[in-house]
Amino acid sequence: MIVDKPLGFSSHDVVGMVRRLAATKKVGHAGTLDPQASGVLVIGIGKATKLLTYLVGKDKSYRATIRLGQSTETDDAAGELLQTWDARHLSSIEIDQALATFKGEIMQVPTKVSAIKIDGKRAYQMARDGEEVKLAARPVTISQIRRVSSLRRQSGPNNETLWDFDVVVDCSSGTYIRAIARDLGEALGMGGHLVALRRTRVGSYDLSQAQTVLQLGSQIALDNEAEQPQGLSVIDLATVCQQNFPVRIVTPLEAKALSYGQFLPAHETGEIYAELTADHTVVALTKNQGKKARPVYVLAPA
């Protein structure tokens, strides 16, 4: 299920609504969105929860509002204000040139309020407890980053000029948009932070396919009044696999082998493949291991 998570809701809140609708606790999501962020949240139900492992790593797209001239404790608008600069001297050309340096494969230090674990403890929990958080830079890939609005003047506490503007970003999984805002400010000699964030795409799923929380709430009300559940607007497992992985058609004998967890000949590439029968029934996901393709998730076990 694809949901458009609204502001103020946690990802766990949405999972709770879907659990109630689906009448099962076996519900998860592919990639947390903070309550201060909105947009595409991929939900897995039942067997599909295992598929989430392979969807989390898909590329993502965002639309974000960045503010130049202020730094915050959390690199976003929810954090305590640390320092203010006057940004009136910055032109849109200078900002665009600085943005362009983030395109490609870069090394990024995650925000210290991330969910990354350090010695078994989440970074954000360490930050809340007042502990020093040191995170190593990691490679991320930004295939697109560009400004899509004019500069909007905001006023700082002492009438400093701050600049707000919107950007669109296409990036690899694990990229922190808050860190881009922070690092953009540093590249321009001042602070920067994220004002608003909306995720517009996860892999092959975008906002055009997403249901709203209001629609989910209406469905809960209908189900409470109906003798039979009204059903969910969901994407079936076979379709999900075909939308997100390269496909190989297998013979009945190969399908039987996969159902027992046996290996098949290797693929031409190192990607995870969806193995389908001629009638488009998905049997398993496989990945190369040496000269063989090993099942990593059997959807039609013997």
**SSE order in H/E notation?**
EHEEHEEEHEEEHEEEHEEEHHEHEEEE
Give the class-level CATH name of the largest domain: Alpha Beta
- Percent in strands: 25-35%
Please give the alpha-carbon distance between the first and last residues: 27 Å
Q: Give the CATH superfamily of the largest domain.
A: Pseudouridine synthase
CATH architecture title of the largest domain: 2-Layer Sandwich
Give the biggest beta sheet. 11 strands, mixed
What class do helices, strands and sheet pairing give?
A: alpha+beta
InterPro entries: PsdUridine_synth_cat_dom_sf (IPR020103), PsdUridine_synth_N (IPR002501), PUA-like_sf (IPR015947), PUA_sf (IPR036974), tRNA_psdUridine_synth_fam2_C (IPR015225), tRNA_psdUridine_synth_TruB (IPR014780), TruB_C (IPR032819)
Protein name: tRNA pseudouridine synthase B
Active site: 34 (nucleophile)
Pfam family, one: TruB_N
Brief synopsis:
Helices cover 24% and strands 35% of the residues. The chain is of the alpha+beta class. The chain has three domains: 2-58 and 204-225, Pseudouridine synthase, CATH 3.30.2350; 60-202, Pseudouridine synthase, CATH 3.30.2350.10; 237-298, Roll (Archaeosine Trna-guanine Transglycosylase, Chain: A, domain 4), CATH 2.30.130.10.
Explain what the structure shows.
It is an enzyme of class 5 (isomerase). Residues 19-177 form the Pseudouridine synthase II N-terminal domain. Helix 1 (11-22) runs parallel beside helix 6. The strands form 4 sheets. Strands 1, 2, 3, 4, 7, 10, 11, 12, 13, 14 and 15 form an 11-stranded mixed sheet that branches. This protein has a 5-stranded mixed sheet with strand order 16-18-19-20-17, sandwiched between helices. A two-stranded antiparallel sheet has the order 5-6. It has helices spanning 11-22, 52-55, 92-100, 123-128, 177-187, 213-225, 237-244, 252-259, and strands spanning 2-5, 27-29, 37-45, 60-68, 70-72, 81-84, 104-108, 117-118, 121-122, 138-147, 152-155, 161-171, 192-202, 205-206, 211-212, 247-249, 264-265, 273-276, 282-289, 292-298. It is α+β, with helices and mostly antiparallel strands and 302 residues long. The chain has 3 domains: 2-58 and 204-225, Pseudouridine synthase; 60-202, Pseudouridine synthase; 237-298, Archaeosine Trna-guanine Transglycosylase, Chain: A, domain 4 (Roll), CATH 2.30.130.10. It is elongated, with a radius of gyration of 22 Å. It is built from 8 helices and 20 strands. The two termini are 27 Å apart.
